[in-house]
Design goal:
single chain, about 280 residues, alpha+beta, Dna Ligase, domain 1, D-amino Acid Aminotransferase, Chain A, domain 1, 8 helices, about 30% helix
Length: about 280
């Protein structure tokens, strides 16, 4: 279940992973929900395993229809739905000891007048992805202007100062990789520059995966003066710039399909690094 790409060309990482899996005897099909006519009232599982790669509302909804009928899914539908909701994610990550920004949920921007007078804030969609719709505000007027175009309810976070580039962290099981690149609404299409994974970053990444019940996932981290801060998490990212990503993904999918890996539901109590009941195969 893949997303329509920008530009509209197949993902080289996915194409390579498909070929590896086909070489192991799997039949692999893919599809973009927005390009298909579906009957959700009649939709039934007809594959042994679904890979939920798309973050769109339609894909996530159809995945929910399939999951309600017992379809096996990677990452599991409830875990993906939780990760997509930034309100829930904020609480789970804070409980797991992951360094995250202070976060508010609201519909009336006037409720944060005092807070925005003290420090810059970030306004973003609570179900967003790819960095779309994010605004930095410095005063009450800016907060109100951002709220006019925001989808309510809004998620507002403290703005974390950083070096001007985001750290994109990609995880397969317990293998953690990182690339650095400037943030923008189109930066998801850029590979970035591979960098070393510091122990604090690895710890935050594995705590995030355990808390959200994810095995294939990514994080956006800002390296603040006080250390790395996780500002976003997403399931099944693009893995651009990660060496041998296709082989690692294929290994993980293979092991998951064979029942060698399990991913529990998101939990406030599942924050220990390496926890969550999953292991990297072979």
């Amino acid at each position: 279940m893949i997303v329509r790409r920008v530009p509209p060309v197949p993902s080289p990482v996915l194409l390579e992973a498909y070929e590896i899996l086909r070489g192991r005897g799997y039949d692999v099909e893919d599809g973009i929900a927005e390009e298909q006519l579906q009957r959700p009232d009649l939709l039934e599982p007809d594959h042994d395993l679904y890979l939920l790669k798309s973050h769109t509302d339609l894909s996530l909804s159809l995945a929910g229809v399939l999951a309600a009928q017992g379809a096996q899914m990677l990452n599991p539908y409830p875990n993906c739905a939780t990760t997509q909701n930034k309100f829930i994610t904020a609480r789970l990550l804070r409980a797991a000891g992951v360094p995250t920004p202070d976060t508010w949920a609201l519909t009336d921007p006037a409720l944060l007048d005092d807070e925005v007078a003290r420090r810059p804030l970030l306004v973003k969609p609570y179900m967003g992805h790819r960095g779309a719709g994010i605004s930095i505000v410095h005063d009450a007027a800016g907060l109100r202007a951002a709220a006019e175009s925001a989808v309510c309810p809004m998620i507002v976070q403290e703005h974390i100062p950083g070096p001007g580039e985001d750290l994109k962290v990609y995880v397969v099981g317990d293998q953690v990789f990182a690339v650095s690149k400037p943030f923008s609404e189109t930066s998801f299409a850029v590979a970035g520059r591979p960098v070393a994974v510091e122990p604090e970053v690895r710890d935050a990444a594995l705590r995030t995966g355990a808390a959200l019940g994810l095995g294939l996932y990514g994080l956006d981290i800002i390296e603040s003066p006080d250390g790395p801060v996780v500002v976003d998490a997403n399931y099944f990212p693009g893995y651009k710039g990660v060496p041998d990503a296709a082989a690692m993904i294929a290994d993980y999918v293979d092991a998951y399909a064979q029942g060698e890996i399990s991913l529990p539901a998101p939990s406030v109590g599942a924050g220990a690094p390496g926890g969550g009941g999953f292991a990297h195969p072979r």
